[in-house]
Amino acid sequence: MKKDINKIAIIRLSALGDIVNTAIVLQFIHKAYPKAKIDWVCEEVFAPLLQNHPLINKVHSVNLKELKKTKSISKLFENISKLRNLDNYDIVIDVQGLLKSAIVAKIVGKNTYGFAFDSARERVAALFYKGSCRVAYDENIVKRNTFLIGEALRFRISDEMILDKEPLFEVEKYGDIAEDKKNIAIVIGASWESKKYPKQSVAKLCDELKESCYIIWGDEKEKKEAQWICENSSYATLAPKLSLNELLSFISSMDLLIGNDTGPTHMAWAQNIPSITLFGPTNSRMMYKTPLHVSIKSPSRVDIFKIDKNDFSIKEIKVSEILMMAKRLLYGL
Questions:
Q1: Is the residue at 1 inside a domain?
Q2: How confident is residue 1, by pLDDT bands cut at 50, 70 and 90?
Q3: In a domain, 209, yes or no
Q4: For the segment 25-73, what is each residue's pLDDT rounded down to a tens digit?
Q5: Full domain range(s) for residue 54
Q6: Is residue 2 one of the residues assigned to a domain?
Q7: Structural domain tally of the chain?
Q8: Pair 311, 300: CB distance under 8 Å
Q9: Are residues 135 and 51 located together in one domain of the fold?
Q10: Which three-class secondary structure state does DSSP give residue 144?
Q11: Could you give the CA distance from residue 171 to residue 53 in angstroms, rounded to a whole number?
């Protein structure tokens, strides 16, 4: 028998890909507790992505990254005061499993829930939870998130539910894209250089695809790399500068996305857009595979407990292998 739960707070501060992968829980919570109000606490930079979500009551933002840089005591107390003045929640669920997210959860409410000591990314986080569950740290990230939420709220989220999920975000289709060819987004950025597929290989891939390939970039360095690709492939087009919500809309309008292990790539899975994720120093634990969402891993071995950021083996992935998968997803070949 499930206890009545009316107010739920989700703590998932960052990063973009993790927030996107966590958002799947909203539709399942809503079905299990249709009258419950769900609030979300995240880093300020990611708040716009969540603010207009129909299943989120309120988005509360903090700026811990700025605090880390400035070490401002006044800003620290300002953030703490803001968190302490939030609603009284029936349960506060920390999906991140870090010390900082666990402290935030504890400030937000008393009835905290998170990963157990041997399951949290930072084990000390478990000391701040009233309730916890065990799920292997090297388990698939989406399954970790959904298992934690299911245990916290006492209902089961099955693989079938995940496979049959609705798009995680409501967006309007992006207007200014080609109509006479297949539209393919290619994400070239990543948080580490070793996660990036070489620009020369991306240009070659665009030439082989012979469709409208939009090169997505995030900062000026990535923009220069994207421009180089466009100069070296007649099928590549520089994507416009996009806000988070515009990026989500743009990706939701594509026929296929190909990208590194990074936030924008995971948006394709979130929106049920076919995708190919390229892995070098990380592996497919970071995505949920489906017939439409596949991955290619470089030859290197990955220890998820000790990631080697100097593993540049992603460059060994062959363009021909990506092309074969792309043709299957685009044309059923």
A1: no
A2: very low
A3: yes
A4: 999 999 999 999 999 999 999 999 999 999 999 999 999 887 777 777 7
A5: 7-163
A6: no
A7: 2
A8: yes
A9: yes
A10: helix
A11: 10
